């Protein structure tokens, strides 16, 4: 009986660890309306998160491509977006401001997708995410990743 109880406790503990180790996956559609389909995401501190950015647009890439950048809490989204305009060769991700970016996807044209996996910050709070394709952030293409302990 004791052996069965110990085995049951071990199985429960291992099952809990396996669930905890799974990444939270969020699929976000980048819309022609210059909005993300998910404008808020909630995660746990230190949780592994996978973002899949999908662009279902029929417009040419030069007119309607998108990316997804998660910024550090103290980052200035407006300044980062302004710098991104000069970073076309790097998918509008300014490499000289990489210290303000937690994670980002590449640029996705219509019919394409990209995925990024990262570890959520340990510090609870709100972290902004934006699209830096020219004009998109200014038009409101942004959202908030909230890190919140249960």
From TrEMBL:
Keyword Oxidoreductase present in the record's keywords: the answer is no
Transmembrane feature ranges: none
CDD domains per record? Azurin_like
Q: Where would one find the signal peptide in this protein?
A: 1-20
Gene3D superfamilies associated with the record: Cupredoxins - blue copper proteins
Concerning Pfam families, the annotation shows:
Copper-bind
SUPFAM superfamilies cross-referenced by the UniProt entry: Cupredoxins
Organism from which the protein derives: Salinisphaera dokdonensis CL-ES53
Q: Identify this protein by name.
A: Blue (Type1) copper domain-containing protein
Blue (type 1) copper domain span: 30-148
Top-level taxon: Bacteria
Q: Any idea which UniProt keywords this protein has?
A: Copper, Electron transport, Metal-binding, Signal, Transport
